[in-house]
Each structure stands twice: as structure tokens, then as C-alpha cells.
UniProtKB/TrEMBL annotation:
GO terms for biological process: protein folding. Residues 1-20 form the signal peptide. GO terms for molecular function: peptidyl-prolyl cis-trans isomerase activity. This is Peptidyl-prolyl cis-trans isomerase. Residues 157-241 form the PPIase FKBP-type domain. It comes from Candidatus Aphodenecus pullistercoris.
């Protein structure tokens, strides 16, 4: 039972934090000072890493975990003088988990709203730039290089070969074929904003497109694409294959 409680606490700490290498100085009143020593055995090294990882979790958490109380709980366990029964600890962990989930939901809702506001503000401003073509108030593109005079034009139903890069509003690359091989795509199987832009292109053409989240991955995001993130694509239409 105790092992399960410790593992549960570790998972909860991890859910409140991001894995980071930053450290912070802390004053912990948890008994006699432990002399500095380099762990020698596997057990000692593991014990150190276990404690350090818990420190990393607490360093970044926003849920009110107190390092000094964590240290006291560990000492009480070693000395067999715990404050709570196993049943009480299970209830406390459950209450803390509810708090974690509530905070995660609040953070998600805030991120969804903030990203949507940023996307719509950007598109409204970007629409006024010279050279920007608005297919709707949610899909925009700009021609960077004209297509070949005799190049085939893509249709919404086409299979195409493209070279592309996708970034977010902060300039982070979230997907790219640049520097590798172009990829063949069936436009009906791509996000609607991407398909709408490519179906305006001809072979050899290169464009930059701005796509509203509702025409991309919406409020859930996908992989390293956050909820309600506007996407910016640089697209080179290599060929129309069918």
C-alpha cells in the first residue's frame, strides 16, 4: 500500500510540472544537515536521483507543494511516525488529484481562448497587407513564386507532391519536409485550410498560407500543435499527380 501511495504521489508531482533542468535554492527545515557526499553504490545513486527528480517536479509546480513538508513526511515514514493512515493518505491523494485536474482544465481553457484571440487578431491585420489573398476570413495566402506557365493546376480532389514547412505564430517549426524529400498527399485527406490553398496553386508555385485553427486542428490541437493555434505554411507544389 505504501509503495502505491509513493508512486501515486510521484505521478501527481510530474503532472504538475514540466521536465526541466533548472534548479532553485530552498531552505528546508527537515532535521539535521546531511553532509555533502558523492553517492557510491547503485542504491545510493538511485536514491539521490529519486530525490532530485522530486525536487525538479516541486520546483516547477504551481499547486502549493511545500518541500519542507515533503521532507518531513519522508522522515516520518522512516521513523514510523506518520500523521495519516493509509486510508487517509488515499483520500488526500484523491483530493490533490482533483485539484490537479481542475488546474489543468483551467489552463486548457485559458490557452484555447488566448490562442483563438491571437489567431483572429493576426488574420484581421494580415488581411490588409499588400499581396495577401483572402479565400475567406479564415484562410489567407501570398504567392512567393509563380508557377510554371504550362504547369498543371491542382484541384481539391487532387493527389499532389509538395514540399512544405509549418510553423506557429511564435515561429516554432511544427512540421517540415524541407531538407528531406517532398511528400505525396491526397488533398481530401489533409486539413481543410491546406487543401483550400493548394487547390489554388499550379505546379512550380510557392506560397505562404495562414490558416485559422477551425480550418486546421481546432481546439484540441495535434501533437506539438497547441489548441486553437493558427498555422503558417510555406508550400511548394512540386507536381500534380492525379
Amino acid at each position: 500500500m505504501r509503495i502505491g501511495l509513493i508512486l501515486s504521489l510521484g505521478l501527481l508531482l510530474a503532472s504538475c510540472s514540466s521536465n526541466t533542468s533548472s534548479t532553485a535554492s530552498r531552505d528546508v527545515d527537515a532535521g539535521p544537515a546531511i553532509p555533502d557526499a558523492v553517492p557510491e553504490t547503485v542504491d545510493e545513486r538511485f536514491s539521490y536521483v529519486f530525490g532530485y527528480q522530486m525536487g525538479l517536479a516541486m520546483d516547477e509546480n504551481v499547486m502549493g507543494i511545500e518541500p519542507s513538508v515533503v521532507a518531513q513526511g519522508l522522515l516520518d515514514y522512516i521513523e514510523g511516525t506518520g500523521l495519516y493512515s493509509d486510508e487517509e493518505m488515499t483520500q488526500i491523494l484523491s483530493e490533490f488529484q482533483d485539484k490537479v485536474f481542475q488546474r489543468a482544465e483551467e489552463l486548457y481553457r485559458s490557452t484555447v481562448a488566448g490562442n483563438l484571440d491571437a489567431a483572429e487578431a493576426f488574420l484581421a491585420s494580415n488581411a490588409n497587407r499588400t499581396g495577401v489573398v483572402s479565400l475567406s476570413d479564415q484562410i489567407q495566402y501570398e504567392v512567393l513564386q509563380s508557377g510554371s506557365p504550362d504547369g498543371r493546376r491542382a484541384l481539391a480532389s487532387s493527389t499532389v507532391t509538395v514540399d512544405y514547412q509549418c510553423i506557429d505564430l511564435d515561429g516554432n517549426i511544427v512540421d517540415s519536409t524541407f531538407g528531406s524529400q517532398p511528400v505525396q498527399l491526397s488533398l481530401p485527406d489533409t486539413i481543410s485550410g491546406f487543401s483550400a490553398v493548394v487547390s489554388q496553386m499550379s505546379e512550380g508555385e510557392r506560397v505562404r498560407a495562414w490558416i485559422h485553427p477551425s480550418q486546421a486542428y481546432g481546439s484540441y490541437g495535434s501533437g506539438n500543435i497547441g489548441p486553437n493555434e493558427l498555422l503558417i505554411f510555406d508550400i511548394n507544389l512540386v507536381s500534380v499527380d492525379g
